[in-house]
Amino acid sequence: MTVTATESAESTRAPGGLRPSMTPARLLKSHGALIAIAVLAYLLLVWAPGSMTAFRLGNLGKYCALALASMGIGLAWGRGGMLVMGQGVFFGLGGYAMAMHMKLEAAGPGQVPDFMVLYGDGTMPGWWEPFRSGAFTIFAIIALPALTSFILGYAILKRKVKGAYLAILTQALAVAFATLLIATIKQTGGFNGLNTFTTFFGHNLYDPEVKKNVYRIAAGLVILFLVILWQIYRSRYGELLIATRDAEERIRFLGYDPANIKLVSFIVAAVMASVGGAIFVPIVGIISPSSVDASASILLIAGVALGGRASLLGPALGAIAVGYGRSSLSERFPTQWTYFQGALFILVVLFLPGGAASLTSRLRSLLSRVRSVRPATSRRVDVAPAAPAVHVEPEALA
Amino acid sequence: MTDSFVGEDHLEIRNLTVDFDGFKAINGVDLTLRQGRLHFLIGPNGAGKTTLVDALTGLVRGSGEAVFRGRDLLTMKSHKIVRLGIGRTFQTATVFEQLSVLQNLDIAAGVHRSIASRLLARGKVPDRVVQALETIGLTSLAHRPAGILAHGQKQWLEVGMLLVQDAKVMFLDETVAGMSAGEREETGDLLQRIVGDRTIVVIEHDMEFMRRYADFVTVMHSGTVLAEGTVTEIQADRQVQEVYLGTVTEVAAHG
Fold this sequence. Notes:
The complex is a heterodimer of chains A (398) and B (255). Chain A has 398 residues and is mainly alpha-helical. Helices cover 69% and strands 2% of the residues of chain A. Chain A has a two-stranded antiparallel sheet with strand order 1-4. In chain A, a hairpin with a 2-residue loop joins strand 2 (199-200) and strand 3 (203-204). In chain A, helix 3 crosses helix 13 (294-307) and helix 3 (54-79) crosses helix 14. Chain A is globular and about 75 Å long. Chain B has a single domain (11-254), classed as P-loop containing nucleotide triphosphate hydrolases (Rossmann fold). Chain B has 10 helices and 10 strands. Chain B has helices spanning 49-56, 78-84, 101-108, 115-118, 127-136, 151-164, 181-194, 207-213, 231-236, 238-254; strands spanning 11-20, 23-33, 37-42, 63-68, 71-72, 86-88, 169-173, 199-203, 216-221, 224-229. Chain B has a 6-stranded mixed sheet with strand order 6-7-8-3-9-10, sandwiched between helices. In chain B, helix 3 (101-108) packs parallel to helix 6 and helix 5 packs antiparallel against helix 6. Chain A binds chain B through residues 3, 8, 11-12, 16-20, 231-232, 234-237, 239-240, 242-243, 246-247, 249-257, 383-384, 386-387, 390, 392-393, and chain B through 57, 77-79, 82-83, 87-88, 90, 94-99, 102-104, 106-108, 110-111, 113, 117-122, 125, 130, 133, 139-145, 147-150, 153, 161, 165.
């Protein structure tokens, strides 16, 4: 419950009741998300680069890249109700677009990427050519996933495919995409993917300062997209999306086509995954089918579920936490890590479906229940005494 | 109470048939839904009342004709029909439980909003929403999640949503089912207040409620129209007594 007894009593008393006055509690409620984003921005952009080793910072950058994809899943799944299990496809589109550009940069003007000489006859397919241009590459990182997700989403959502069917279908796409990449070794590097980059838009990737700046871009993108999501969630569209998630048929009888509403968030989620993939490449130094296949896609889901899929910060923090857990636990228990993660996923789904972000509201409702057990003297009960039974998703982070 | 009339927002149904694999749930129904009255649609279970509304709102396919403002509803998709000015509720109230009462109404009022305005947060509460809150008596609960509303309040919210979407034809499917006597009365008064020049079609099982509030009644039986008329005329109709009113009185007496 986000609405406490005192707040509701207040809004009943307010004349008209439609424009509640600003109390500190309300201010925190309406601007708490922005404050939280600002804190995260400080941590990621100021604190981390100043106090972390280059290695740890690189790891954090990688988690930021994954967080971008996770945040998109939060939008599509948490708010839109679409369990998209194939975001690796869009992550891969952005990642490969960036990698192709960097590969061409490494090869030099007019030259051909090394692996094409190694595996093929040294000729480059024509569709590689435009990626020599940095501007085109950035355009492609946005436009490719947008176009692909529009076509896919239109076909899937207009046919009213949803629930488990949507999950299976999107996952199958990820499998197909990875298979396609592996099969086209001469054009995409196959199983090995694309690697061995030297420069990022002309800057030497071996320079520690450049590395730091690449990290800053990744972290900055996380913050930027958090602000974009914040605006989406508080907009009328955001309300409409939740309404569509909860009662899709009902929304149809208010005159909306739910497919269009969901399509928008499907596309935004795809673009976010693509941007994540694009910034993943200069940080990690490789993109290969294993970063875009079905299991990579599921790994993203795990972070989102853990953090809280419907919350603003949950998916991003969940992705970073899973990333950290993975690297630190896998250093100590290399073989058991997957079990940890699986167990965690099951526990969250079973006992905390709203993810870590719902912890505070859970605690609050527990607290109010404990309080109501005590003889209520001044407690005012209006409308429905059974209010705590309804779990209301926190508007922002929790 | 009101004088009904055939205006530009009336609905003309001709030879409507809904065929479920050979079973005719609706069989050649002719019906004129005139404006400005509470038109009750009654009949025993399986008579085809809800199916009729489903067909008119694009939920099931029907043949024949249902003309509203020069368009045949039977050829249109649900959300397009709504945009034309036809709204409905369902037997079980489905409001968006996690959203506030205000948000529920705002969504219902927003069909014709531009994309740009959808990307912004709500600034001022639209006048229509304020009025609807007032009309359905939920102003004090505007900021509460709709999920905590009592059953009757949810149904009123649904009516409010039809009001803000400016539905000229409203189909209300068993709106007062499960309501207390007091809530029924409030609902009936609410419907009389809002009818104006609208066409309000109420599917109902509650005979008492019908007697008190119906301006006009259509009795359906086995997918056809059995009788039409005022409450007095319907009650005097021998056929209706046989197939429907008798059985319901019994059921009501037992229940």
